[in-house]
Model the fold of this input.
Amino acid sequence: MEDVANLMHGFAVVLTWKNLLFMLVGILLGVLIGVLPGLGGANGVAILLPLTFTMSPTSAIIMLSCIYWGALFGGAITSILFNIPGEPWSVATTFDGYPMAQKGRAGEAMTAAFTSSFVGALVAVIMITFLAPLVAKFALKFGPPEYFGIQLLTFCSFVGMGREPPLKTIASMMLGFALAAVGLDTVTGTLRMNFGFTEMLQGFDFLIAVIGLFGIGEILITMEEGLAFKESKGKINPKIVLETWAKLPKYWVTSLRSCLIGCWMGITPGGATPASFMSYGMARRFSKQGGKFGEGELEGVIAPETAAHAAGTSALLPMLTLGIPGSPTAAVLLGGLLIWGLQPGPLLFFEHKDFVWGLIASMYLGNIVGLLIVLTTVPWWAAILRIPFAIIAPVIVVICAVGAYTVHNRMFDVVLMIVFGIMGYFFKKLKYPLAPLVLALVLGDMAETAFRQSMLLSGGSITIFWSNGLVGSIVTLALVILSWPLISRGMEHWKKRAGRSERVTR
Amino acid sequence: MSTQDGKARGVVPTCWVEIAVALMFVVAAAVVIIDSVRVGATWGPDGPKAGYFPFYIGCILAITGAGIVVQALRRWKILAAETFVSHDQLKPVLTMLWPTLVYVGLIALLGIYVASALYIGTFMLWQGKYKWPSALAVSLGVPIAMFLMFEIWFLVPLPKGPLEHLLGY
Done:
């Protein structure tokens, strides 16, 4: 019950005119970012982060997290109307959303997508409300080995659960760690890998990497694909909304299953994209209409959207309680917390109650406001996508350049952004995942410090990671997940051989 | 995406790019390892030295880079038939990239507002084949909106050049 009281206090913090205004602005900016090619949740929040330095941390995080919700909603609009997934996790939404739009049922598809996003996010926020304080209390007992174990688990999940080739995931992650090591070593004060350049003393800021990799890289890819929008008309009116809402309760099983998949995959990081695919796959397998999936089935929109948003929202749970973000956007928000002088982690729940519960309350309100806004403003967003790319592209590059510059007021960062952009283009085309690189760049220093402190505790022996039951099971689980691609390949191989020998004996 | 003939004119097959990028990882790994050894990758008198952690990162990076090269060699035939980028696809990418590089250079010289106006204007006239009035409207409108938002509303200074100094900013 203490949590409920805290939450009510949070609502009191949020419900000021100023904060509600920030919320509204955040949602609108978020949808805009989600709709525009080249701007997504992660780099959108990164670009706008410097503008919030002068705000109070609570107002700032409300606005930034609302940008995140808005971007999540916006991704669905482009997937359904234009067959362009705004974010990786809306890819699965295009499978049935776009065919529905082509059949003239775009309004229905969008209502279903927005509503299920809302349901997924709501379930995840309820879970955060009750689970986060418990996790925070538990995490207070963590020492350096446990922290390193959790981070190892984070990174191993990328390898084990990602859809990209495991070696490429590891390579991209290690590059992130290597880039994070550049500059001043905080423990010994030694300069590493700066090769005499004073610009590199501070190291690489991950915000620059995010803006370059996701922004400039995306623009280059979009240029290459040549933007030929095949638009379907997106009419949406109260009648369609109400009719669709009447249909939705029928799919409560799919919805519930998707929420569970989303929450689970969101807490174990790297989750939103695999969650949406997994949920889509499960829905296809269990649905009576499974055969019609891909031709424009309402259930095929509900399943991935619910899971993606449940995952996107629950990615904030490890960010708040352990200081380990579950997604690139959560990583950017974490960077914001550090800049405002708030150390994410279990102590946040005890030292900055106003902030934490204000944020959680704003998640409830932000999603309700977001749902209402997107339902009422869809035609405008679709109109924005009709602006020709020859105008949109340079404007987005200008916005990215401004964002990169304002992080540290350095021209060097703008140059770095372009370098990261070109890198992003190659990485994307060769199927190197970008999220592990960004997360390694964010967590690199923390992981290194935790590792070195553990080594100091044990005098250089790696056995410290199995010194008690808790850290032992975390690290073992991490290693199992890391080797999962190998295990599953081995099992398939074994199954095939078993199948073959069976046939032979027959 | 794959073409019938991997050696068709104006096509870069995936295999070479794959190997090149993987080798870049190996080179990056070598840089990390060498520098870590330079600052000390061993155990010092007061605990691990500065290169202790990056040294292992470099090692893993080198191994995975090599692994990707091996995998690419094993799938050489498939990758050789895959198109990484064709001439027709590369052209629009470069028409985006070159002006952007020039733009970054211009920011340092002219400040971000004037450079942005030139960049957006040129791009619209040249790529979008827009008429002068509309190109002028967008290319002046965006920097002016930026100026109001950053310099006046949020008080965040952006790089300025001769024109802004002339106007007293």
